[in-house]
């Protein structure tokens, strides 16, 4: 069973922290969708999309990548980090078009200094922490 996670982590590297730990502990390839906006995913059985949440959506690079490169009928899982709350709708809309549904979803807080939060030193400071990382690894192992 080959697995890959396509990720985007442009704010503080919060999501990257999670997926790098996952890749170290599970047999998972990583693709940074910002650096590599296209890839052939046909050889993978299970595909993960991981992103920070920006204006209630997965990062545009992930949405564009999935729209172009996600083959139909794959097992897909979703991971996000967020300052306020998780939101999977943007990517789930694309999965719908590809006849896929998420086989699992995982989200945790991620340090956020966007806009006014910067003035107060940011929110969700220290996240993802060790526990978040452990939970994310367990999530992927359990898929
Ligand atoms: C431009 C921008 C918009 C954001 N919008 C949201 C949002 O709508 N909801 C939310 O919960 N967090 C929001 N955040 C916080 C990020 O989702 C959070 O910090 C996330 O962990 C960033 O992940 P990254 O470091 O992997 O990019 C936003 C951050 C930025 C920079």
TrEMBL record:
Flavodoxin domain sequence ranges: 4-89
GO biological process, any: heme biosynthetic process
InterPro entries: Flavodoxin_dom, Flavoprotein-like_sf, Protoporphyrinogen_IX_DH
A molecular function GO annotation: FMN binding
Pfam family, one: Flavodoxin_5
Domain of life where this protein originates: Bacteria
PANTHER family: PROTOPORPHYRINOGEN IX DEHYDROGENASE [MENAQUINONE], PROTOPORPHYRINOGEN IX DEHYDROGENASE [QUINONE]
Identification of the protein by name: Flavodoxin family protein
Protein's organism: Fusicatenibacter faecihominis
Source species taxonomy: Bacteria, Bacillati, Bacillota, Clostridia, Lachnospirales
């Amino acid at each position: 069973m080959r697995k890959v996670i396509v990720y985007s982590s442009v704010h503080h590297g919060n999501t990257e922290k999670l997926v790098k730990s996952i890749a170290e502990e599970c047999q998972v390839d990583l693709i940074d969708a910002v650096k590599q906006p296209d890839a052939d995913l046909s050889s993978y059985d299970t595909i993960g999309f991981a992103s920070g949440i920006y204006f209630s959506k997965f990062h545009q690079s992930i949405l564009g990548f999935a729209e172009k490169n996600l083959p139909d009928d794959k097992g897909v899982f979703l991971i996000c980090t967020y300052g306020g709350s998780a939101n999977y709708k943007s990517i789930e809309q694309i999965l719908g078009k590809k006849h896929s549904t998420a086989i699992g979803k995982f989200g945790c807080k991620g340090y956020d200094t966007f806009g006014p939060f910067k003035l107060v030193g940011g929110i969700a400071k220290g996240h993802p922490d060790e526990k978040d990382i452990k939970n994310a690894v367990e999530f992927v192992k359990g898929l």
